[in-house]
Design brief:
This protein is an alpha+beta fold and 400 residues long. Helix content is 25%, strand content 34%. The strands form 4 sheets. The chain has a 19-stranded mixed sheet that branches. The chain is globular, with a radius of gyration of 23 Å.
Amino acid sequence: MNSEHHQRQLIKKYLLGTVTNQERDEVAVWLSDSKVKKLFEEVMDEIEPQLFPEKDTDQKYLEDKLLEFKHKNHIPLKESINKRNMIWTWLPYAAALIVFVLFSLNIWMHHDNKKAPKEALALQNLTVLPGREKATLTLADGSTITLGDELNGELAKQPGVRIEKTKEGEILYLTEDEHLETKPVYNKVTTRNGGQYQITLPDGSKAWLNAASSLTYPVNFNKNERRVKMTGEVYFEVAKLKLPHQKDSIPFFVETDKQVIQVLGTQFNINAYADEPYIRTTLVEGSVRLTSSLNAVSVLLKPGQEAVLSDQFRIRSADLQQQLAWKNGEFVFKGEYLEQILKQIARWYDVKVECPARFSKIKFSGIVSRSMPFSTVISMIESTKEVKISMEGRRLIVSD
């Protein structure tokens, strides 16, 4: 058994969203130990101001109800609720341990009593699965390759480039003739709702596509610049490249419908979904310059900052845990409106959402793994008692 100090440090990292995948798996194994579950709660109490700095402390009655719920289900769960600002946090792996029990109980109730509570309806829907690694690669000639179903190895050849897929599912562009002069040939990777994908571009840069996103790029970059186009949400790790006998790096440009980003070698995330009211660019390291396509205004971002663009740029400090949560396999909400949460859920689980306007501005905060069953996520939202959710096919309906 690992030392308590080691466990405490890893649990803290887990809750703050800074664990590696290996550490995350280690934490998941611990949850079978009742002592570790208690340790989870202790650590959560210690770092709660970091997780929820705006917590309302005048809520003894509701916290007593939460304590009763925790003891009944034997899981580490922290939730804080006030009249119109809901805060919930479910530990993802703990939730996984009780999903089967909850679903089995629901089936028993359904057969025993046809008038089962409406709150249990979400648990009956097992056809809605989390998203997974899948995408479509469109080649220059218009032909398509479904990524995720193809065998590993060589997928296609294009002038001067060989396209391969690794056993881990990553797409690689391997240059066969660096001196081959060809006209620009473009490929496009597209993910639908319920999919995500990682690709290594011909220059060695890496891109992670969230659900409902696309990335268009040349199979051979220009020697003087590298330029790609994207929609949806993409995280980039841009390779630093220099031409022989030159000091400056070859610039890397990312185009969306409202802005152009110039990069010299850095890590950043761009959220540019068409159904969102703004484009959000979050810088992890390095530096980027953003230019609005609306008015040609430019701004420079520093690490830890984000630029939000609607009609003009707004620069502010970024919450990296929240903005990069999707790439790290999590949903992280901190005082986020229900309508924004439901958009993310709809993309990842590939469902349609009907949410009356009167519910859209309810605020929630919480952390949950994107690998959790759809029913678990819905049950968490319903646990606030603020809204009820029912399913009709793949339509999620919010009501009171």
